[in-house]
Design goal:
- The complex is a heterodimer.
- By secondary structure, chain A is mainly beta.
- Chain A has one domain.
- In chain A, 6% of the residues lie in helices and 39% in strands.
- Chain A has two helices and 13 strands.
- Chain B is mainly α.
- Chain B has two domains: 144 residues, Orthogonal Bundle (Cytochrome Bc1 Complex, Chain D, domain 2), CATH 1.10.760; 141 residues, Cytochrome c-like domain (Cytochrome Bc1 Complex, Chain D, domain 2), CATH 1.10.760.10.
- In chain B, helix 2 packs antiparallel against helix 6, helix 2 packs across helix 7 and helix 9 packs across helix 12.
- The N and C termini of chain B lie far apart (53 Å).
- Classes of the chains: A mainly beta, B mainly alpha.
- Chains A and B meet through strand 2, strand 5, strand 6 and strand 12 of A and strand 1, helix 4, helix 5, helix 7 and helix 10 of B.
């Protein structure tokens, strides 16, 4: 991951040193139109820890599923009750200490065009209150595939989490200006959150 | 990239086995010796507390563990700075020696170290309200490069490597694998029990032991009620709001509450601080700019700077600030001195257990 070079929508090259995000509340859509909501569970995906990128949803009612949606970001009620454990343990460094709450998507890296010291890029996207809300639901297409979850059969879905999407549309991020290189929540983060919806 | 796997349920017997194991485990749980409750007592003249120790019942073991952590420099990057280095009991847990906080490698912070008292009644913490829960307050100091300069992961690893600490966590919480939640809960048992309500003022309002105020103190209290108590409200001496009291005209150095809310209407607003033990907690204000209470009152009387977010209470009848004569200032100071709680600053329960002294 560290060595590969990517390009954003403005064709500016960059590398990625950290890419982590919180996903939760998977909802499965059945062929007959009914919906199964997986009980609330939080996952922290860290691209440096391959095991974290493999989520098993247990005890799914048998059936054919045609859609999956999930939420990126941590629910407001989990941002306020103090210190939690597991995927929400502040030890994971996805928790702001100067403005209590979780970082939902954390991407750090470098771009030769960045005016920051050492050409750093740092995007900490989070915020659960009012206008700062960066929680987004997403349902990536399964491209017509049906997930057949029946006794003894555990279908898998592979998602490609593309960091470049974060910098693409609708909100293009320009790495050559300061406000496009370091974000700690706030209005810019909200605009970028629309990119991962 | 990440992947999900849907695993349907199909083995009923497995679920039953799970329930059985669960049952067994809870039985074992009840065999654990219950630690003694350590009382959190709300003073009669206080409102209901915000932090109620619901998920974190105070025990003697938990409180003492929290105190040990509070005074342990090993929570910092170079093992030299503890919470107690900045928050000193003799000064009501504020810091005299520096107007801005002073951390690892002699680095200066951006803000003045606030006093600590009655934290269980505070809905939010820090000068800008950036922390929303008592349990998360230590995290900023630990990880801030100009305060303790350590990562949370390293702190937890260090603690897990010390058998003495593992034993204390087991005694307090029933298990000795230390995680951040247990550490922060232990610290909240200590910081939450820092209740200051035994000043002469408290005994006067609770009519205890016939405590009386002098004529100056009584007049000072009246002046305070008339001019200050709309912000420094209730016996906590704060209404927990964020306000601009006119310290600056642009707040370029520290925009305060705006950092947290991203709202320009919050520029220059800071938390109304409690005035408990205020005679001991100099320097004053978020930037430590005043060294005496007299200077603070001079500010309110004639130093208030205008800006778009200045609190309307400090701009009345076309005049900035609160008109105060020198005599009125003297009386206000006499009153503020009654808020000093010597028992709190000398309470042996709150002392540094490692160096066993309140002033070092």
């Amino acid at each position: 991951m560290h060595t590969r070079t990517y390009t954003n929508a403005l064709r500016q090259p960059y590398t990625v040193s950290h890419f982590m995000y919180h996903v939760r509340n998977f909802t499965l859509l059945k062929e007959d139109g009914s919906v199964y909501k997986v009980p609330e569970s939080y996952f922290l995906i860290d691209h440096e820890k391959p095991s974290s990128a493999f989520i098993t949803l247990p005890d799914i009612p048998a059936g054919d599923y045609t859609g999956v949606s999930f939420i990126i970001g941590v629910d407001s009620t989990r941002n306020t009750p103090g210190v939690q454990t597991g995927a929400l343990d502040p030890v994971n460094a996805m928790f702001w200490s100067w403005n209590t709450g979780y970082i939902f998507v954390r991407m750090e890296g470098n771009s030769p065009v960045s005016p920051q010291p050492n050409n750093k890029l740092l995007f900490h996207i989070g915020g659960f209150r009012g206008a700062d809300n960066c929680i987004r639901e997403t349902s990536p297409s399964l491209n017509g595939n049906v997930l057949q979850a029946w006794a003894g059969k555990s279908p898998e879905v592979h998602y490609k989490a593309d960091a470049s999407k974060l910098f693409g549309a609708p909100d293009q991020v320009n790495f050559s200006v300061l406000e496009g290189t370091a974000i700690h929540g706030g209005p810019r983060a909200v605009q970028m959150a629309d990119n991962y919806r | 990239m990440f992947k999900i796997k849907l695993r349907p349920y199909w083995l009923l017997c497995l679920a039953v086995a799970g329930a059985f194991i669960g049952c067994d485990r809870s039985q074992k749980g009840t065999e654990m010796p219950e630690p003694d409750p350590y009382a959190f007592v709300a003073p009669a003249n206080f409102p209901e507390s915000v932090y109620r120790f619901q998920n974190n019942p105070v025990t003697k073991e938990g409180f003492e563990l929290g105190r040990m952590l509070f005074y342990d420099g090993r929570l910092s990057g170079d093992n030299s700075v503890s919470c107690g280095t900045c928050h000193r009991q003799t000064f009501a847990f504020a810091d005299h020696s520096h107007d801005l906080s002073h951390g690892v490698g002699n680095k200066l912070g951006n803000r003045n170290t606030p006093a600590m008292a009655n934290l269980a009644w505070m809905p939010e913490f820090f000068w800008d309200g950036g922390a929303n829960h008592l349990e998360v307050t230590p995290l900023n100091a630990i990880t801030n490069p100009v305060e303790m300069g350590e990562t949370l992961k390293n702190v937890i690893d260090k603690l897990n490597g010390m058998p003495g600490y593992r034993e204390k966590f087991r005694a307090a919480f029933g298990h000795d694998t230390i995680n951040s939640q247990l550490m922060f809960r232990a610290m909240a048992q200590f910081t939450g029990l820092l209740v200051s309500a035994n000043s002469r003022y408290d005994r006067y309002v609770r009519r205890e032991n016939g405590v009386e105020f002098t004529a100056d103190e009584k007049e000072g209290l009246q002046l305070f009620t008339a001019n200050c108590a709309s912000c420094h409200a209730t016996d906590l001496f704060t209404d927990h709001s964020y306000r601009n009291n006119g310290l600056d005209s642009d707040f370029a150095r520290d925009p305060g509450r705006e950092i947290v809310t991203s709202d320009p209407a919050d520029r220059g607003k800071f938390k109304v601080p409690s005035l408990r033990n205020v005679a001991l907690t100099m320097p004053y204000m978020h930037n430590g700019q005043f060294y005496t209470l007299r200077r603070v009152l001079d500010h309110y009387a004639s130093g208030v700077k205008d800006s778009p977010t200045l609190d309307p209470l400090l701009r009345q009848n076309g005049r900035l600030g609160i008109p105060l004569t020198e005599d009125q200032k003297t009386k206000l100071i006499a009153f503020l001195n009654t808020l000093t709680d010597a028992a709190f600053c000398n309470d042996p329960r709150f002392r540094d257990p490692i160096n066993n002294s309140t002033d070092q």
